[in-house]
Amino acid sequence: MPETDTLARSLHDVGLAAWFGGSLMGAVGLNGAAAQVDDSKQRARVANAGWAHWTPINLAAIGAHVLGGALIITANKGRIAGQQGVASWTVAKLGVTVAALAATGYARVLGQKMEQFGDVPVEGGTEPLPETPDEVKAAQRQLKLLQWTIPALTGTALVMSARMGEQQRPKEVSGGILGRLLPRS
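RESULT FIELD:
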């Protein structure tokens, strides 16, 4: 076992950063840029093409994050079991990550559904026009919510990672181990 987990932490952190940043840029930049296209029937195409180009990179980022997280958990199984608070943070962050995975996967399913509708008039990537078909409007409503849910969840995971990094400070480790060994009064 190596003395450091630089590769695992790098995969975990860079993957999560790309997932967060890409989703936020897509919501703000890509969907916003699609709304600037003059032909309302081309706006969805532009947004869909951008998201389709991002998908393989996002998949690689998510894979790196998950692999890095699994390696970190394996390397820290002793701390997870022995240091008070580490297991609960690990479980909570895993829950947030699973929720982000589910939201990302569902957003991709909706994006593929949008691609199948072809060139329909829309205001933007997640904004319908009155003449937008009802099925497209429904998908856009869901995507509008998901475009903010994904960066909120991945941003939460980033903050949780920062807290979990603090748990590795010597004072936190010793306090957490003592907290686990000494009964509460």
